[in-house]
Amino acid sequence: KKILVLNGPNLNLLGTREPAQYGSTTLADVEAMCRAAGERLGFEVECFQSNWEGALIDRIQEYGRLCKEGKALGCVFNPGAYTHTSVALHDAIKGVDLPVIECHISNVHAREAFRHHSYISPAAAGIVVGFGVAGYVVALEGLVRRHDPDNA
Ligand code: DQA
């Protein structure tokens, strides 16, 4: 079974983008970490990043279909700034009933007020916030454990 690790806008810049906030690990490193965690947990992790809202919606719809067919478990999703703006991403998750663990590298609640609200959280199965890039692995473990309490 597959799990999608989905990253939204500006996360392709991880490693050089505001390192004080997001650390110095690159997205390629994060994706390698996620694939290794997937292997350990017995799932095939597919990684995708886009700066385009519609491309993220397309992948959510695709994984909704795969889940229905029993070929995928769900998605770990860092929507970046779309977290705070996108009704369309909220609707996409709800629309296909995809189990999503929302993941943020930084503790958004300790930052600017405009980062305190998430359109994604009400559609998410769980949320991991403020653990740095290690949060992606925590989110993967949470997604697996939620489906199979004895694993992870
Ligand atoms: C982020 C937090 C968002 O507020 C911000 O727009 C990002 C990254 C995080 O991982 O901490 O792009 O999602």
TrEMBL record:
<comment type="similarity">
    <text>Belongs to the type-II 3-dehydroquinase family.</text>
</comment>
<comment type="pathway">
    <text>Metabolic intermediate biosynthesis; chorismate biosynthesis; chorismate from D-erythrose 4-phosphate and phosphoenolpyruvate: step 3/7.</text>
</comment>
<feature type="active site" description="Proton acceptor">
    <location>
        <position position="22"/>
    </location>
</feature>
<feature type="binding site">
    <location>
        <position position="91"/>
    </location>
    <ligand>
        <name>substrate</name>
    </ligand>
</feature>
<feature type="active site" description="Proton donor">
    <location>
        <position position="104"/>
    </location>
</feature>
<dbReference type="GO" id="GO:0008652">
    <property type="term" value="P:amino acid biosynthetic process"/>
</dbReference>
<comment type="subunit">
    <text>Homododecamer.</text>
</comment>
<feature type="site" description="Transition state stabilizer">
    <location>
        <position position="17"/>
    </location>
</feature>
<keyword id="KW-0057">Aromatic amino acid biosynthesis</keyword>
<keyword id="KW-0028">Amino-acid biosynthesis</keyword>
<dbReference type="Pfam" id="PF01220">
    <property type="entry name" value="DHquinase_II"/>
</dbReference>
<keyword id="KW-0812">Transmembrane</keyword>
<dbReference type="GO" id="GO:0019631">
    <property type="term" value="P:quinate catabolic process"/>
</dbReference>
<feature type="transmembrane region" description="Helical">
    <location>
        <begin position="119"/>
        <end position="139"/>
    </location>
</feature>
<protein>
    <recommendedName>
        <fullName>3-dehydroquinate dehydratase</fullName>
        <ecNumber>4.2.1.10</ecNumber>
    </recommendedName>
</protein>
<dbReference type="InterPro" id="IPR018509">
    <property type="entry name" value="DHquinase_II_CS"/>
</dbReference>
<dbReference type="GO" id="GO:0003855">
    <property type="term" value="F:3-dehydroquinate dehydratase activity"/>
</dbReference>
<keyword id="KW-0456">Lyase</keyword>
<dbReference type="GO" id="GO:0009073">
    <property type="term" value="P:aromatic amino acid family biosynthetic process"/>
</dbReference>
<feature type="binding site">
    <location>
        <position position="84"/>
    </location>
    <ligand>
        <name>substrate</name>
    </ligand>
</feature>
<keyword id="KW-0472">Membrane</keyword>
<feature type="binding site">
    <location>
        <position position="115"/>
    </location>
    <ligand>
        <name>substrate</name>
    </ligand>
</feature>
<dbReference type="InterPro" id="IPR001874">
    <property type="entry name" value="DHquinase_II"/>
</dbReference>
<feature type="binding site">
    <location>
        <begin position="105"/>
        <end position="106"/>
    </location>
    <ligand>
        <name>substrate</name>
    </ligand>
</feature>
<dbReference type="InterPro" id="IPR036441">
    <property type="entry name" value="DHquinase_II_sf"/>
</dbReference>
<feature type="binding site">
    <location>
        <position position="78"/>
    </location>
    <ligand>
        <name>substrate</name>
    </ligand>
</feature>
<keyword id="KW-1133">Transmembrane helix</keyword>
<comment type="function">
    <text>Catalyzes a trans-dehydration via an enolate intermediate.</text>
</comment>
<dbReference type="GO" id="GO:0009423">
    <property type="term" value="P:chorismate biosynthetic process"/>
</dbReference>
